Amino acid sequence: MTKSCPPNPKAVPEPATWDARLARRLVTPLVGTPVTPNHLTTLRLAIGLAGAYYLSLGQFWMCTLGALLIALSNFVDHTDGELARISGQSSKIGHLYDLACDALVTVLLFLGIGFYVAVHHPSMIVPAQWLGGIAGVAVALIFFLRMRIESMVGKSGTKQASMAGFETEDVLYLLPVVTILNGMTPFLVAAAIGAPLFAIYVAVDHQRVVRRSKERAQASHAKDGNDLQAVR
Questions:
Q1: pLDDT tens digits for 167-191?
Q2: Burial, 145: exposed, middle or buried (Cβ in 10 Å; 0-12, 13-18, 19+)?
Q3: In angstroms, rounded to a whole number, what is the distance separating the alpha carbons of residues 191 and 203?
Q4: What is the CA radius of gyration of the chain?
Q5: Where are the alpha helices (DSSP H) in the chain?
Q6: Contact 87, 54 (CB under 8 A)
Q7: d(CA 49, CA 178)
């Protein structure tokens, strides 16, 4: 694993979102300690798995606890990246591990919601477990395609839309509120519809990136050929 030289934490640009800024302040004391970004990624994974499990039990208060854990897991997800940036411990393996954990937690989150809704609404036209599975598979596809896009054009190609310090994924912070207001069923239905639609959008974007990459490669090859002929 190749590590860069540790930068000065104060010299690293401030994050754009509020939760990433808070995460940086919390992990700054960890610079120079045995704690690594991968440790924090594993912590995020453990919290997320526990949250998805409690969601799936079908009991209101267990579901509320699961939703709180999912929200906490979503926040902890920012800590590993911030520690990596300010400590110079960024690595490709760590980044892939982080993406894999993100995908797993999100997929299991929707499956857990599906099992919860199935307990309270067993007579839905489409079984709630299927709705959770549809949303989960769509999210897994989105993560895979975004990883492919990032490998071709860098992180700028997969940057999430943000406004006033909030990103799209910040909707997970509202999950405990959705649970308390008994809104899991409409939330699941919306996810089962919205996630596949967004997956289609990302798939189209992926094809656009692939096409442009091929065009650049062909242009570069043609330029090299012209330069070679000019030398001759």
A1: 667 788 899 999 999 999 999 999 9
A2: buried
A3: 17
A4: 21
A5: 18-27, 37-56, 60-87, 92-120, 128-153, 175-180, 184-231
A6: no
A7: 19
Give the pLDDT confidence of 93-114 residue by residue, as tens digits.
888 899 899 989 999 999 999 9
Q: Where are the domains of the chain?
A: 12-231
Identity of residue 232: R
Encoded amino acid at 164, one letter: A
Candidates 175, 160, 199; CA nearest to 81 is: 160
Quick one: 12-231 is in which CATH superfamily?
A: CDP-alcohol phosphotransferase transmembrane (TM) domain (1.20.120.1760)
CA dist., res. 167 & res. 19, Å (int): 10
Structure tokens at 27: 């992990």
